[in-house]
Specification:
The structure holds 2 protein chains of 2 kinds. Chain A is α/β, with parallel strands linked by helices. Chain A has 5 helices and 6 strands, in the order E-H-E-H-E-E-E-H-E-H-H. Chain B has one domain: Cytochrome-c3 Hydrogenase, chain B, CATH 1.10.645.10. In chain B, strands 8-7-6-9 form a 4-stranded mixed beta sheet. A 3-stranded antiparallel beta sheet of chain B has the order 1-2-3. In chain B, strand 4 and strand 5 form a beta hairpin. Classes of the chains: A alpha/beta, B alpha+beta.
Amino acid sequence: MTPLTIIGMGSRLCGDDAIGLAILDALQEEAGSDLELIEGGLDALAALESMAGRDQVILVDATRMGLDPGSVRVFMADQVNLQVREDHLSLHGIGLSEALEMGERLGLLPSNLKIIGIQPLSINVGTGLSEPVQAAIPEVLDLIRTERQLQHHMTDAYRGTGGISTA
Amino acid sequence: MTRDLNINVHHLTRVEGHGNIVVNMKEGVLEKAHLNIVEPPRFFEAMIKGRSFHETAIITSRICGICSLGHQMTSLKATEAALGLEISEQTALLRKLLVHGATMQSNLLHAYFLAAPDLLDAPSVFPLIATHKDVVLRALRMKRLANDIGDIVSGRAVHPITPVPGGFTRIPTRGELEAIKQKILDEGIPDCVATVETMKALAGAIPQFERETEYISLKDKEEYGLYNGDIYSSDAGTFPVEEYLSVTNEHVVAHSTSKHARHKRSSYMVGALARWNNNHDQMLPEAQAAAETLGLGAPCINPYMITIAQVVESYHCMLDSVKVIDELLSKGLKDEKPNQSPTRYGRGIASTEVPRGILFHDYTYDNKGNIVSGNCVIPTGQNLANIDDDMVKLVPEMIHKSQAEITHALEMLVRAYDPCISCSVHMLDVTFKED
């Protein structure tokens, strides 16, 4: 069965930017042959490499969406306008938006790539999540578990061993 | 020529830091030419205060997504120096392999994704995906290989914590090292050769600009120094790493919130070109031949050639990785446990060459093994004054050119140094498409 890969992005030292990593922490116990966890950290190009060659990937990252802090949205890369910065002075300017754009143009993105974005309250330097972002963790975990269940059902249905049909 | 010139490049508007190029010329007299960077890594010195020696490198390695390994290695060495922890030969070899991987990764990404677009007159790497897809894929493949080295040796894919004070919590297997060696031979070295060819085709577009400066790097007695060595200055010779403060002389300047450094002149250069100038004769012969192919002489005083020095150095690291792996395999891998029994408590200073130049970590521990104070001197801070001095010479030399051309030359100059501008937060920024 195709494993579901969760890539958590962000920095543990920048407040709510750590949400992607906090989700990985919360999923540690559940990891297995059908659920793979990858710490993308701050290296967006490494995250792109991790995506390449995989079919089912969910990226989790703090996302500026203009919503209330702690709001959670699931989207595909082509459903949003990523703010891609093409002119930068250093490698540090290559963020996830740029890596996704590059992956799209190179044809490296997984066939099923979803992004779970969590609106941060603060990404200032400091450890620990803000209250609204901490409170969003169960919702994000539910979304991931639902996606994982869906994978199981789809596989079961394909094998003719039962499960609900997605059709 | 009497001319007024005002250049203000506000490129980086990220939340917690930015870099601006500011040039003012009035009636042909240059009043101002500098790069202003708000340098964020300072805060971490406060963050590690009171933490146990087990945590220090974990925190420092997470400061930066690009230079994490360099911070980690330097941090471990400083902690080991402070606590009197001896490391084994095997540990040193494994760390050298990690440093090779990290150096290749950063150098090559810089050459391919930042410098090459400039040399092809493209605004960024994105248009090159359509015209030079195979080259972009090669760049990513080489980054992948460098990452693989990191994953196998440091277990980074899971948790970047197998390198700890005193050694490693997990030793790679013989099979893993053999596999990575085979990949280097089959893929890595041919890709390096192809990279040299690609850069040779682009090298004609590198601006001809020269300014001699002081070049500072590590120098190792035995080999091309990246992991170990003494401080070496092209002006003043060798100094022990413990005397780094007398070399860096950090000071505050009015136009930058980041400190500047100076030694024998108003500025000095660190990084791949400084390493090449100081240690080129210790590079492996194939890499030296590549330098000749690419027109990199020694010493080279053109800062735009930093990119070429990075490519040559990456080739050296790729080749030397095979040697390091062979040495590990021939000595037999031992399942060692890290030596974490301090023999003393106090101050420890260490230095490693990270891609952008010489990095210093300096810690003092109390007798419980907790940090009392820490200091870090990072390469970009050391290069800032040198970039300013380059600009001061470059702008008058180009004064007959258009403002756009001068601005582009200045941006390319800054990019050549690949300054470590704010990297703490890489947050996605989106607006939803309306159906």
